[in-house]
């Protein structure tokens, strides 16, 4: 099967084997409505919206300051995603990049493969509707130094104080504990991901039957109602 996948990559210019260049470094997903900022780096439109309340925002990758007025549609990247495909590492089917986000949540072989990964030091992914064996979503372990028992706010504070300059790519323990999480997916910019993606306590504010984006929106709305 692996040889078939390799052969497909060799014979199609529209197939992308490495998704790094089409992946947003904030949400770690394939770009959705890609937009660029003045330094040239590209992110999802909704991910950049997280910066709307910041007076002097800086690029999550290069730290160069940018203005909201400099944000523009990344048409070339949008066209690339619209015209490209990849091969699912679970079922090895050829999938359009536009549909790959949804495919990852529905591919049974991909879920089975993820569940077979070696255990990590924080709770691993479980399939939805397994409430009895649900992972611990109350406390988390720092993926850099191994200090345990942080809630979401505590982990954010610890990482920003102790590991701001750490360039090592790590797995987000919060994402890994969620039903939609992938305990093998490494975040190249964990500090930025943590600050933007996990501003709210998922454990008390969301329905875990929702997907990632819907859960984030529910957490934001619930937090605003409580404030």
Automatic annotation (TrEMBL):
UniProt keywords (A-Z) are:
Metal-binding, Transferase, Ubl conjugation pathway, Zinc, Zinc-finger
Question: What pathway annotation does it carry?
Answer: Protein modification; protein ubiquitination
Which InterPro entries did the record assign? Di19_Zn-bd, RNF_E3_ubiq-protein_ligase, UIM_dom, ZF_C2HC_RNF, Znf-RING_euk, Znf_RING, Znf_RING/FYVE/PHD, Znf_RING_CS
One Gene Ontology molecular-function label: zinc ion binding
Q: Which GO terms describe its biological process?
A: protein polyubiquitination; ubiquitin-dependent protein catabolic process
Protein name as catalogued: Uncharacterized protein
Provide the RING-type domain boundaries.
24-63
Task: Tell me which stretches of the chain form a coiled coil.
Answer: none
């Amino acid at each position: 099967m692996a040889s078939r996948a390799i052969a497909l990559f060799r014979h199609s210019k529209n197939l992308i084997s490495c998704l790094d260049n089409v992946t947003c470094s904030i949400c770690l997903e394939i770009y959705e409505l890609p937009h660029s900022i003045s330094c040239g780096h590209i992110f999802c439109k909704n991910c950049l919206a997280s910066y709307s309340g910041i007076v002097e925002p800086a690029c999550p990758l290069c730290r160069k300051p940018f203005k909201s007025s400099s944000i523009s549609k990344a048409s070339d990247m949008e066209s690339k995603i619209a015209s490209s495909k990849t091969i699912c590492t679970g079922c090895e089917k050829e999938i359009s990049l536009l549909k790959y986000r949804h495919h990852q949540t529905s591919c049974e072989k991909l879920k089975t493969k993820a569940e077979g990964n070696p255990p990590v030091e924080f709770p691993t992914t479980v399939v939805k509707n397994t409430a009895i064996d649900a992972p611990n979503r109350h406390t988390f372990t720092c993926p850099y130094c191994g200090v345990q028992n942080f809630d979401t706010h505590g982990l954010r504070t610890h990482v920003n104080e102790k590991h701001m300059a750490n360039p090592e790519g790590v797995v987000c323990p919060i994402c890994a504990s969620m039903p939609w999480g992938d305990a093998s997916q490494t975040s190249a910019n964990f500090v930025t991901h943590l600050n933007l993606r996990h501003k709210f306590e998922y454990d008390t504010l969301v329905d875990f039957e929702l997907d990632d984006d819907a859960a984030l929106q529910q957490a934001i709305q619930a937090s605003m109602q409580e404030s």
